Request: fold
Amino acid sequence: MEIYYTTVFFLFGTIFGSFFNVVGSRIPNGESIVNPPSHCTNCNHQLTWKELIPILSFLFQGGKCRQCKQTISWFHPLYEFATGLLFALCYNIFGFQFELIIALTFLSVLMILLVSDYYYMILPDEVLITGGVALVIELWIGHGFSDTVMAIGSGVVAFIIMYLIKLIGDFIFQKESMGGGDIKLLFLFGMILGIPLSVVSIFLASFIALPISLIILYQKKTNIIPFGPFLGMAAMILYLTRFDMNTLINILNNIG
Reply:
């Protein structure tokens, strides 16, 4: 049964991934996530159900639009696969507990924000606020009022820490070092990960971003690189591995 449920969650994850891709790419442009229906951005051909099957449609069509033969980015099937994998991991880690709902909501918000930041370097307030409200409600239902208040307090502290880091970065580089969306995102991290791991996520995101940023700088010759996707990846790693500060302290002690 474990294999069955893991497969089901993976399949649903790919479907949601396809939808998240639409949400993340349309909201920054002020577009409806419902109308117009999914279509080729090159020729406006409305996609049929056969062209909307996650991952498989891309493979069967050879990575091209059936109408105009425009090449479709590999980002789409890889993103759908990654979302499916995250959903399957959530089930395997949390099982059928209420924490599974919180986990799926948190990771879904991060995946939508990843798309927005990847395409437009924007972390939309609509997604941050909607995701934040949903998580507060779920925390309240699953953990009670007092724990929810503490989680919100942790979110506020994480937000302030990130804002201070931004001010220091602005002073050092004499220009805006970080977007406002990244700061707001830390509020969600504070609620779900807690203050210590929220801080760890910043450093882990920087570590992940360094080699990738060097490649992007070399290929695109640009010094504007979104930090949100790296923050999201760091948060996912810490959350899904159920990393805690005691583990980090033990690692540091062993190094010492």
